[in-house]
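Form 7-S
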Amino acid sequence: TRREAASGRLFCCPAAADPMSVLSRNHFELFGLPVRFEIDTAALDAAYRGVQGAVHPDRHAGGTAADRRVAMQLATHANEAYRTLRDPARRGAYLCALAGVDVEFESNTAMPAQFLMQQIEWREALDDARAARSAAGLQALREGLEEARDALLARLARAIDADGDYVEAAGDLRQMMFLDRFSAEIDDAEERLLEA
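Output:
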C-alpha cells in the first residue's frame, strides 16, 4: 500500500510510521537535538545530512507521484529546519516562538538607551570610514561589532538556556537583528572600497 511504501522506503526516522507526522515535529526533534539555544553544530550538520539523504527527492524519483510529493515536502521542511537552527538569530526567534513569545521584529523597536548610544557611535564610525575610504577603519568597526555580537550570543544563551527568560531573549534578538543589518552595511562599504 501507499502507507507501507512511504513508511518503509521514504523516511529516515524509524519512529515515524507516517512520514507526514515528521512535519509536526519541532526542528530540534527532527534532528534529535536538545531544545536549547547552544547547540552542537557538528551534530546538527551530521543529523541534517542523514535526514536530507533519506528524504532527498532524487532518491524517490522512481517512486509514486505521492512518494515524490511527500519527499519534496519533507526535504523542504528539513532544509528550513536546518537553516533556522544553523543561524543563531533565527534559532533564538524559533525558541521564543516555541515558548509562546513573539520577538516582534517588525513592530517593537524599543532598545536599551546604552545600545542606542552604541548604535550612534557605530554609525558615526561607519560614516567616518566611508568618508576617509579607510579599510582599516572598516575592519576596526567590524571587530567591535563582532565583539558585541559574541557578548549578545552569550546573553542569549544565558537568557534562554539557563534562565528560561524568553522576553529578555526577544529584546536581545532585536538587538541581534540590528547587528546583522549593520554588518551588511559594513560589507557593502568594503565592497565599494574595493570597487574604487
